[in-house]
Structures are given as C-alpha cells and as structure tokens.
C-alpha cells in the first residue's frame, strides 16, 4: 500500500515521504480500516517536528483522524463488522495518511449517514474537543456570549458551530479577511480580524461592558492575555492549546479580582480515564449532524502527492476550514 512516512523529524514539507509499504495487520484489540478520508490536524505537523506529546518510533505514518471502512478485526474484537463505515482516531505508527490504518477498537465509532466521508473524517477530534470544552468544562448556557479564537481553524470552526447549536452568541477571532469570511459562513454572529480590530473592544461593546461568558482559546500567548481583559464576571476561559507557540503564565491575582475561572482541557485524558464520556459525546454530535446543526467545513481535498505541502500550510497558519486527505 502507499503511505506518507516520516523517517526523521523536521518540517512536514521536508520529511513526509510517499512510499510503498506493507499493509499493517491488526493486533489484539485493534481494527484494520481502509482509509476513505483523513482530516489534517495541527498535531500531525507537531508529530512531524517531533514536538507532540507522544512520539511514535521512526519511521511512522501521521494522520490522527479518519473515516474508513473496516477491513479486518484483530483478536478479541467483537461488535465491529467488516465493511462498516466508521470514524475515530488512528493508532500510530500506522496512521491515516495511507491506504490502510490501524485503530483501537474502543475508539471506533459509527460514521453518521448524514455526513460524507471527508466531513465524517473531520467530526472526531475537533468536535469532541469543542463539545467537552463548551459543555463539560465551561457549562455553556443558552444566551451566553462565547469568544472563539482561531475561529476558522480546525477546533475553532467546530467550537463556533457547537456554540451556536447550544443557543449562544459567538464572537469569532481570525487572522485575515479570507478567514473572516469562513468564520461568518460557519455562523459566528460577529467576526473580528485581529489584524484590523481589537477583539477586546468589540466584545465589550457587544456585551455592554460585561464581557464574554466563555473564552475558547486554542492559541495561547497574546490571545490569552488579551482575553483576560474582556472575560465576564464569573466567566470561564478554556485553555485548549498553544498554537501561537507561547504558553501563557496567568496572573492568578487577576482571576481572583475579576472572579473568572481558568479551565484546562486535555481531551485525550477522557479517552483514557472516562471513555464512556467520549461515546456519549459522539452520540450527541451525531444527533447534531443529523439535524444539520453541525457540518465540518471542508475547504480542500488533497491526494497523496499534495498532502505534505498541505500539512505544511496548516502548520504555517495558511489554511481555512478543514484539509482532508483522500487516498
């Protein structure tokens, strides 16, 4: 089969190589799937660079999220039939940027019939992250105002749709006019191009000085620091990640004085410690997809030859919506 593999760490465009390799075999508790589509995520770029929280042995195939067709079930796997259309996370080092990938059986979920393969491939990591951030961690309530950073990106775009589906008012922050168009198309009530406007001033004016009830922050750095200037009394800032490359050092005295909460979200821990919550979130996301309330915005479909360049563009912040690999 064909696969894009990393033999040494570096920039995605430099280290992702298209090769012919043997098709992997599922071990106990694993499932082999034929990849129908694989969404590109920021962790894929970090994996190439050797900067992700897990480091698979070299060489490996990235691709952490996919929609596929079950080809073979490993020892001890029950209830997952060959031919089933599924989605979920890939088991590295046999990731989804290939014709076939491995998945842990406990992380395999039915793909919604209401979504195409490329959309279903994008429903897992970003939307699960958004669901847990907004509902389990922040306790979002209808009518609240949500400030979403990187609103045109993978997790940000999911947060915009999920917040709207929950009855919230959404302010999306983006970098550039094309990304602003994307955030508006996703349903954001107000879109702020951070290159041209100050989102702090916009949020305060929109809310009559109250501020945002929930801040969804996958960026960190200056985005986090400025968000503390416009978070509401009893507001919640959910720390998703640090795409800016700068990890904030919050002033806890400021959180005390303004009565807001700083909440961390490491979604992967739920898979380890409370997997039933991940299955429940998938059921809710499927319902929302079937009702047309969430739909991943796939902006570009890439074949194997163009995938390395696509991962690089995502790493450089030059993409909108979701990039999806289709073998």
From TrEMBL:
Residues 11-325 form the Enoyl reductase (ER) domain. CDD domains: QOR1. Pfam families: ADH_N, ADH_zinc_N. GO terms for molecular function: quinone reductase (NADPH) activity; zinc ion binding. The keyword Oxidoreductase applies. It comes from the Bacteria. Keywords: Oxidoreductase. Its EC number is 1.6.5.5. The keyword Oxidoreductase applies. This is NADPH2:quinone reductase.
């Amino acid at each position: 089969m064909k696969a894009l593999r990393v033999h040494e760490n570096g920039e995605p465009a430099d280290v992702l190589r298209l090769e012919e390799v043997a098709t992997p075999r599922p071990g106990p508790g694993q499932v082999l799937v034929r990849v129908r589509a694989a969404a590109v995520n920021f962790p894929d770029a970090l994996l190439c660079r050797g900067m992700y929280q897990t480091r698979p042995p070299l060489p490996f195939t990235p691709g952490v999220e996919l929609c596929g067709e079950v080809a073979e079930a490993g020892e001890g796997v029950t209830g997952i039939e060959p031919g089933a259309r599924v989605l979920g996370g890939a088991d590295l080092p046999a990731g989804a940027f290939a014709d076939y990938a491995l998945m842990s059986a406990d992380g395999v979920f039915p793909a919604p019939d209401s979504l195409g393969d490329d959309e279903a491939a994008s429903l897992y990591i970003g939307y699960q992250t958004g669901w847990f951030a907004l509902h389990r961690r922040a306790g979002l309530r209808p009518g609240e105002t949500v400030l979403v950073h990187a609103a045109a990106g993978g997790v940000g775009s999911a947060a915009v749709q999920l917040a709207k589906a929950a009855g919230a008012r959404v302010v999306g922050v983006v970098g550039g006019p094309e990304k602003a168009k994307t955030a508006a198309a996703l349903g954001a009530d107000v879109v702020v191009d951070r290159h041209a406007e100050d989102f702090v001033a916009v949020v305060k004016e929109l809310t009559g000085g109250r501020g945002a009830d929930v801040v969804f922050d996958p960026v960190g750095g200056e985005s986090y620091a400025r968000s503390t200037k416009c978070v509401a009394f009893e507001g919640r800032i959910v720390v998703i990640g640090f795409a800016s490359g700068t990890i904030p050092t919050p002033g806890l005295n400021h959180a005390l004085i303004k009565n807001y909460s700083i909440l961390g979200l490491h979604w992967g821990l739920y898979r380890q410690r409370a997997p039933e919550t991940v299955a429940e979130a998938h059921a809710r996301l499927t319902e929302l997809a079937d009702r047309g309330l969430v739909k991943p915005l796939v902006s570009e479909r890439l074949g194997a030859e163009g995938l390395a360049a696509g991962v690089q563009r995502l790493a450089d912040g030059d993409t909108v919506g979701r990039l999806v690999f289709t073998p």
